[in-house]
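Suppose you are handed a protein chain with no further information: no name, no annotation, nothing but its sequence. What can you learn? This example shows the usual starting point.
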Amino acid sequence: MAIFVLFAGFLLPRFKVPKYWLWVYYINPFQWAITALVINEYNSSSYGQLCKDVPDLNKIPQCAGRPNDTVGHAFLARGQFYTSNHWIAVSVAVMIGWILLWNIFSYFAMLKLQHGKIIKKVQPAESKVGKATVSPVHYILSCLKEMSF
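A reasonable first move is to predict its three-dimensional structure. Written in structure tokens, the prediction is:
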């Protein structure tokens, strides 16, 4: 998890990531979420003013050397983010892919555990009323005993 936070593009910009760690940057779901949010924000009309129209460039150092860019595009370029709006769709697609991948992993993990078979193997203890009950401790211990990968 810490690797994903480090390589999300916010703490360590894209071009500062070492080449041998670049694969982590591109599979990182945090990076794609941040990319989508940042592109959506800085390509909005709130940051649509051209850098050359900014009265005091000292207040916005991102605009230095970018007179024909918008303020939002200058912020994106300075932060080494993608600048085109089509990257929002790519980000959403990658995040949906991660959701599907983890759901598939969870499905197969649950198949492997087979909780239905474990419950049938637990012998219920008799209570004072005569109904069969299983104590939570007994259930957990029997589950742990049955989980052999």
